[in-house]
Amino acid sequence: MNYNTHNFLAFDIGATSGRSIIGSLTNGKLELKELTRFPNKIIRIHDKYYWDIFALFDALKDGLKAAASQNIKIDAIGIDTWGVDFVYLGEDGSILGTARCYRDPYTVGMPEEYFDKILSRKEVYDLTGIQIMNFNSLFQLYAAKKEGSSALKNAKEILFMPDALSYLLTGKKVCEYTILSTSQFLNPNTKQVEGSLLEAMDVKTSLIPPVVMPGQVIGTLTESLANECGLNQIPVIAVAGHDTGSAVVSVPAENKNFAYLSSGTWSLMGIEVDDPIINEDSFNLNFTNEGGVDGTVRFLKNITGMWLLEQCRKEWEAEGKTFTYPEIVALSGSVAGFQSFVDPDDASLANPGSMTKAIVAFCEKTGQRVPQSEADFIRCIFDSLAMKYKYVLGCLQKVAPFPIEKLHVIGGGSHNKLLNQMTANAIGIPVVAGPGEATAIGNIMMQAKGAGLVSSLQEIRNVIRCSVSPDVFNPQDSEQWNEKYQLFLSLIK
Length: 493
What we know:
The structure is a single chain. With 493 residues, the chain is an alpha+beta fold. Helix content is 39%, strand content 21%. It is built from 19 helices and 21 strands. It has helices at residues 53-69, 110-117, 121-128, 137-146, 150-153, 161-170, 177-180, 195-199, 223-229, 243-249, 280-285, 307-318, 325-333, 355-365, 374-399, 417-427, 438-450, 457-467, 478-492; strands spanning 6-13, 17-26, 29-39, 42-45, 48-51, 76-80, 86-89, 157-160, 175-176, 186-187, 192-193, 211-212, 216-220, 235-238, 258-263, 266-273, 288-291, 297-304, 406-410, 431-433, 471-473. The strands form seven sheets. A seven-stranded mixed sheet has the order 17-18-16-15-19-20-21, with helices on both faces. The protein has a four-stranded mixed sheet with strand order 3-2-1-6, with helices on both faces. It is globular, with a radius of gyration of 22 Å. The mean pLDDT is 96.
């Protein structure tokens, strides 16, 4: 370990907001400082949904200028975002339009049509090991092809979101491995694009730039951008560009016998393995094999997470009711549990016009008590998430090549002590909660690895364990939770 102070600038951009954060690594310990925070809004135009990559680029520049204004010497920059979405680049390197949003309904029904006309569901899964979800990049390209997208017709290349933003900073085009692994056209065994999946629908494999691994230097800030922001031409490093990939880096585990839950808008639960798990069980359970760092594979399942609560909060805010996060947790604890459940991954909750009405409809359809108050809705969501975590962990335990002794909860959800305790109660093993800034920490520590300050994933985790103090939640009331779980199972089957 190098014991001088090094400062790394992480841009961590999620599906609703983003931040620029400075990570200072000194004497084997990491300290964080938030510089800026900015919204990431879905834009609806003629019933199509987009991300505004140019607004995000402006936000990155604001972060760079904030670092310059505070005279912080930046050693490197890294960017992580959500997965699957991308932009098209023209022959001259121009961005053709902006990125389509994964919540755009244009991909509804596309997997089934692809399986019917191109390759079967089993063939696609065997080649990629990726959970079949309609918004995966493979099906976005299929949908774009079907609707005659002029951007696709004129594209020389496509860049996933973190790579597109790195391109705007550096002018260099790469395809980072972990973000590519969300696409459903990466072969996890060869770690390269599986061209047959694209060529079969007449999309050229050459659209995908060369694959780079986390920790590799992409380039430096362009001279004009560095001058505009008052900085030097700082290296931009390919971190684990997929935010979950970065988050899992930050798990403060002492050994490999753990599962993780990256808890935010999405909840992603999985294990870290050396080789992809692609078999009948993983296919039937619809688990995914995404790229990790140091050659690892993140075997996991996507679960709709705080999206349910976020959408309810928007409705309540429109009615003039705003709740802080501590108030939300207090409200949930103010009413009795187990009064109603929803399946967080039910299609009716994916992007409804009204989340509260969709939850009511689910409860009515399944003959349950309908939530009445804001506290009822919040408790319903938390109970349902804890039960879904129990279900997915049970699936993981069937295929994991090691005993799962702990569940590490990382990300924003690690601050929710009530839900963490409910999760421990439901799953019957300890929950270790923290760090909350998991994605930013993982981003920063992969920059440190790229800069040669740490040499391995375990060394990274040793630094993180010295820098954070996770909370531990042990199971309680397991008998009652097991009894109510049978009701939940009947609702999701």
